[in-house]
Amino acid sequence: MNTIRKERGTPRTPVKQRPGVNYYPDALDQGEQKALMAEIRDVLRLAPLFAPTMPRSGKPLSVRMSNCGQLGWVSDKDGGYRYQRHHPETGTDWPPMPRRLVGLWHELTGYETAPQACLINYYSEGSRMGLHRDDDEQDLDAPIMSISLGDNAWFRLGGLARKQPTSRLMLHSGDIICMQGPARLIYHGIDRILPGTSNLLEEGGRFNLTLRRVTRPGTSAPAAPADTADDK
Length: 232
Ligand code: MD3
Ligand code: FE
Description:
The protein is of the alpha+beta class. It has a single domain, classed as Sandwich (Jelly Rolls), CATH 2.60.120.590. The chain is built from 2 helices and 14 strands.
């Protein structure tokens, strides 16, 4: 295991971690983080955090989640991992994605098609996310963009196979990391968060926002479940 040292860089200057992984330390200054967090709080009033559970076992994940945008990622015992248009508990459509997020996506990824889903993960002390790949999307050509807000976290990056060696990177509040191309299907996870390392959130802990394309641009994605099939 090898630790990649974070270099405090110029805002919005990518640090290439490996092919397809662009890391932007301090991409958002304090003011931008506060403004974004206020918009996320508005989203959470309409679409409260829920506790996702694992397919089959029904075991709870340790993070709580919500979404904004056209589609949201959800998981439960019977339905498994999937994207759907509505909140699993309130049944209402996800709130729109704040324009600030869409702007950051175009600015940092250079990808012309708009993101469809923004998954909001909340980690409290002791929450983690085991090593996994994001493969519930049909559009694997599109990038994924992740924004960290709140306490620092140890982020683990592996290879395309689970058994390949991993390295870790400490993510700080305001950091953005974009994955695409050869890195789109790499294994990754959050080992732990470091409580008390940020004062952005009154309640402590860490929010992560992950922006994604789900369906392929301009296709009706016939392989998709009915709920995610049309690309509006
Ligand atoms: C690398 N979330 O929600 S974001 C997830 O901090 C997830 O909450 C973590 O992994 C979090 O699925 C990590 C960074 C991230 C997101 C997607 C990736 C890294 C990725 C997709 C491919 C490779
Ligand atoms: Fe992931």
